[in-house]
Amino acid sequence: MTAFDYRHGGLCNTVDRHEHDYFHFLVDLTDAVIATRDIPSLAEKTADYLHAFFGLDFISLETVESSTFRLNAHSFAFDRQNRRTCNCYSKSLHATLLGTALRNHEKILFNRKAMLEHAGKYPFIDTLVKKGLQVLLHLPLVSAGELLGALAIGSVRHSHFTPDVMELLNRVSSMLAMAIDVILLHGNGNSCSALPLPADSSPVEQDASLHPHNIIGNSPAIQSILRQIEIVAPCNATVLLQGETGTGKGLVAQTIHDLSERNMHEMVKMNCTAIPSELMESELFGHEKGAFTGALNRRIGHFEQADKSTLFLDEIGDMPLDLQPKLLSVLQEHQIRRLGSVVTLPVDVRFIAATNCNLAQKIEDKTFRSDLFYRLNVFPITIPPLRERAEDIPLLARFFVRKYARQMNRHITTIPEPILDMMSRLPWPGNIRELENVMERAVILTGNSTVLNLTPESLSGFTTRTFPVTVQTPEPIRIPAPVIPQTDRNAIIRALRETGGQIGGKSGAAARLGLKRTTLLARIKRLGIAVDDFRGKEEMPSTVTETA
């Protein structure tokens, strides 16, 4: 097919566009949509971008009036000289061929034969047939499970909608649904009016930020993150995400994957903190039947699952030291071997790692390999804590209120301005995760009111009571008692009590147990033993038996 290259103003005579071009198109369209505040402008910009990039001959943006279930359409047709004509109309969704399918959130693709069969019954189809369209696609626009409209696009060429094009159009439809949702809630749609608001309140969707995958924010810090994502997503470079817990590292990782060439496959995720060290190697590499006691069947590990895709290793700083060289080898060689196997398997995996730990300190403490760090640190991205992007807090608060209000079928339209001001001044040690929890609780307490039930007293009490002042390190791994021999735990506890919690040195617990300091620290962490509990306490009799 011949497609118009909108970035260069000429024709691109390649059959398939590179994924990189798709990415730039999506970014450019998103930027244009963000600045749009009414449906007619949104329809016009969408039509111009879709025609320029794909060479489409017909584009129609249709929004649904929820009260009357009518489609308000803004349609654009382009001739061979790229001249555009516009037509606006309204029709009952019940009276259209598309009604049932759209209500079921189904895509509809008409070929020329199907269009001819329905042309006599439906004037809309008849008009498109006369224009020479060979194929017509209708995509439902759905946000939070609610049908907001449809995107109708057509072409005079038979084989226009290839799988790659369809994938990109699915992303476009998701982004347009978000945009329409914001516009309608602003009261700038075809038939929507602004909601009456108290003088000291703020609309839930006021100044809402729009970006794929819900990376919300207008702060310079977030805009910098988005630019870095744009740069690195099309590449296969390893990415290291750093930031406090709750800042959205997982969301950034998912966005990088979704905007990459590997997005046709699901991203594989593994939290290094959540898996016992004894099982982690099998989780990553897989194992053959009989590789060890309890290996009753072959298991495909995360590396193989992520072949041709992305492997996201969260909390990489907690990976056991003895497993780090094996990870380094995979990063360098792109080959794995299942436990119990002699066969080496090639894997095509892109790595994204995340940590809330200070890896430099871990390297100094000899608990993280420097060579692995350098291999992971190809493209580092630091996610800022919420306290450093306070201007984004109102946007995030409105987003979460809207999210949970819909889930609970609540009609919350406003958040009091004094509450938003107070929220912007709080430190939020739990970051976005803490903010989301507070908003969910407030929605629950609001009931049938349209104004969010959140007072300064309850907000302050909730944040200080529920979360610690700082969250820099992950919670210790809690292993069920049967996994770790009870005698090992008892011996460590007894040594810690006898030494007053001292780990290293000639008189420390490690020396008494005949272990290296780092080995003992690793076991203490794995067992979830709090060393501080033993510091400053008197020695207990050796006859005391500890329980898990």
From TrEMBL:
The keyword Aminoacyl-tRNA synthetase does not apply. InterPro entries: AAA+_ATPase, AAA_lid_NorR, GAF, GAF-like_dom_sf, Homeodomain-like_sf, P-loop_NTPase, Sigma_54_int, Sigma_54_int_dom_ATP-bd_1. It holds the Pfam family GAF_2. GO terms for molecular function: ATP binding; sequence-specific DNA binding. Keywords: ATP-binding, DNA-binding, Nucleotide-binding, Transcription, Transcription regulation. One of its GO terms (biological process) is regulation of DNA-templated transcription. The keyword Magnesium does not apply. SUPFAM superfamilies: GAF domain-like, Homeodomain-like, P-loop containing nucleoside triphosphate hydrolases. Residues 215-444 form the Sigma-54 factor interaction domain. PROSITE patterns: SIGMA54_INTERACT_1, SIGMA54_INTERACT_3, SIGMA54_INTERACT_4. This is Sigma 54-interacting transcriptional regulator. It comes from Oxalobacter aliiformigenes.
